[in-house]
Amino acid sequence: MIVVFMIINFADKSVLGLAAVPIMEELDISNSTYGLISSSFSILFSVSGLVVGFFSSRISSRVLLFTMCMVWAFAQLPVLVFAAVPTLIAGRVLLGAAEGPATSMSMHALYKWFPADRRGLPSALQISGAALGTLIAAPVVTWLITDFGWRSAFAGLAGASLVWSAVWWRVGHDGPYGQTPRGGVATGERRGIRVPYRKLLLNGTVVGSVASAFGASWAMGLSHAWLPPYLRTELGMSPASAATLISAVSAFSLVLLLAISPLVDALTRRGVSLRWSSGAPQGIVVAVASLAMAAIPFVHATAPRFVLIGVAFGAHAIAFPLHYMTAAAVVPTAQRGALFGVVAATGTLPGLVAPYLTGHLLDNAASRSAGYTSTFLIAAAIMLTAGLVALVCIRPERDARRLGIGLDGRSSAGAKTLA
Question: d(Cα 151, Cα 228) in Å, to the nearest integer?
Answer without folding.
Answer: 17
